[in-house]
Amino acid sequence: MRIALFIACYNDMLFPDTGKAVTAVLERLGHTVEFPMAQTCCGQMHYNTGYRREADSLVGAFNDAFRGYDAIVTPSGSCGGHVRHHHETETAPNVYEFSEFLVDVLEVTDVGAYYPHRVTYHPTCHSLRMLRVGDKPLRLLRAVEGIDLVELPEAESCCGFGGTFAMKNAETSVAMLQDKMGNVRKTGAQALCASDNSCLMHIGGGLGRVKSGVRTLHLAEILAATR
Amino acid sequence: MSRDEVNVVWLGSPTFPKAAHDALLDTQLRHNLKHATTTIRDKRLRAVAELDDWETLRLAGSQIKDRVMRHLEEYLLQLEASVTAAGGVVHWAQDARQANRIVTELVRAKGATEVVKIKSMATQEIGLNEALQDEGIEATETDLAELIVQLNDDRPSHILVPAIHRNRTEIRDIFRREMGKHGVPAPDGLTDEPRVLAEAARVHLREKFLRAKVAVSGANFACADTGTVGVVESEGNGRMCLTLPETLITVMGIEKVLPSFGDLEVFLQLLPRSSTAERMNPYTSLWTGVTPGDGPQEFHLILLDNGRTKTLADTAGRSALHCIRCSACLNVCPVYERTGGRSYGSVYPGPIGAVLTPQLVGVGTSEHADSLPFASTLCGACYDACPVRIDIPEMLVHLRAKVVDSHRGGLPKPEALAMKGAQLVFGSPRRLALAERLGAMAGRIAGLGGGKWLPGPAKKWTGARDVPVPARESFRTWWRKAGRG
């Protein structure tokens, strides 16, 4: 199986550790990961903000970059969801969000990780309601050795990020964020993880501002951690 | 309500972010909304979980509505013929003004100066109460929550629970202050017990029911094959309006027609569970024309367009017309939960309002309407809750594109320039790599100063959130340097 990593543009620039973690997990499971250098951006931000023409101009390049792979794995539920739902291309059906790929395609839940900390998980809206990943990320987390996984109250409520919504409707976005942060802090978790760094950038930005001491990190980074 | 002209939107409404700013500062409002929406949300989930064929019902509802939209003209003509054959009179109204004029003339012809009303979105949409008041006709809302809103000269904030933003203490104060001005006053020693408040409303309204010669209603459904019109409600006040007065005038949006009486089977299951989280609503009133010696002896059905055929013409936007006004999308919406309904500046608030309002009034016609499709994080909770499977997130994005396109051509705004810039960068991996190196450099410089507070538009982010600093080495650079590719 030829596996390509679709990192998503903001991870490439802001959260490269997530890409390294995805690669590490897949290689630990015995797979080879390729990173097509021609990849840039799937166009989700443009599309969701109403710049459809600009978004459309990126679809062809995405398809060219990832043609020929059996699986295109991404650590972003929202970019994965966008490509699968809105790119009408030959590559679109081969895109998998990371947890989906592990559980559905590779059929593993125990990836040999060790993470001895109290962790809570926020199911991001697009992974939950667009890709319907369900409890797959939780199944992966439960199999992590040493983890103290605690349930997040009102977990399925949106964190308020919403892409450009966070800027266009900043005050509403922050009101939603405050409720999410309150719920995260109720858990007493040391770390909050999710399947999308874009939501985590928003929640983590808020948690950092109030010096909560809660760390945010991508699910893949927990799964990549070993003894 | 204020005397501003109403035609779907309240005239002079600010954009959504501006209206939300005020709403978010109102802590009582936020408390009331959080309490009300979370309660009804959980109840709805339980009511829906009782049916194992819920998803099939949703699909059926969606398909019936789809068929209605494809053959709307035929079904409407069939409805007109059926209603007429059953002794009713059908009127066609292109817009709010026409509909209001028809109602006014019908009330005048009866020599009446007051009407009792059943809770109805269509009459709110056209500002009927205000139009009647201008003609010296007093319209009394008989739905308890609508009465609260009307007595307080307030605006509704929810499709189904228009006074959701008020708690019972506020309601007691409104009754004490206002009821006497419009009829039977609130009794002395009125408490904020729900039962006591309901009794005060009952006494206040009873006098009006018994006196009124004319009632005005909306319609949840109208069956084309039989001419049967239906209203579902919880209080029985609607039933009073539908049975006591001599004349009944129903204002109905043209999209409410159903092909056949049998289709009610689907919608009478979908609607109560989605709206009030009940297996069945307490009162379902169905009437077919007029029946001698039983109920109103004169029945008028006004079929209202008011922007609907325009909405129908957009094949990607038309499913907003499938809405059965259950308001499940409002109750699950995280944005609505914080801002309340009045921030939407329209009689149709919440997610469905964000897609329906701009279409009914026209995209590109006002800053206010154009701001509504952006009042969502696209979290998708509304789509999951919608009993007729309206893909609201997809439609929001469709309307955002129409808004953006309506502004193309002129001097580009900063956002449009930023989007163009991003398109250029993402257009080539080499440009992206260069941008990443520049970003990392800028990030390091900003990082020295803390990276927490940024100027200009970025302030909107850094007001409450730290901003991530670009990595010293992008993933692609690491990959290349590691000799992987």
UniProtKB/TrEMBL annotation, chain A:
Q: What Pfam families is this protein classified in?
A: CCG
- Pinpoint the Cysteine-rich domain residues: 3-83, 119-203
Q: What is this protein called?
A: (Fe-S)-binding protein
From TrEMBL, chain B:
Q: Which InterPro entries match?
A: 4Fe4S_Fe-S-bd, FTHF_cligase-like_sf, Helical_ferredxn, LUD_dom, LutB/LldF, LutB_C, NagB/RpiA_transferase-like
Task: Describe the location of the LUD domain by residue ranges.
Answer: 78-303
Source organism superkingdom:
Bacteria
Identify this protein by name: Lactate utilization protein
Domain Lactate utilization protein B C-terminal, first and last residues per copy:
407-483
Q: Which UniProt keywords apply?
A: 4Fe-4S, Electron transport, Iron, Iron-sulfur, Metal-binding, Repeat, Transport
**Residues spanning the signal sequence:** none
- The record places domain 4Fe-4S ferredoxin-type at 320-390
Species for this entry = Catenulispora pinistramenti
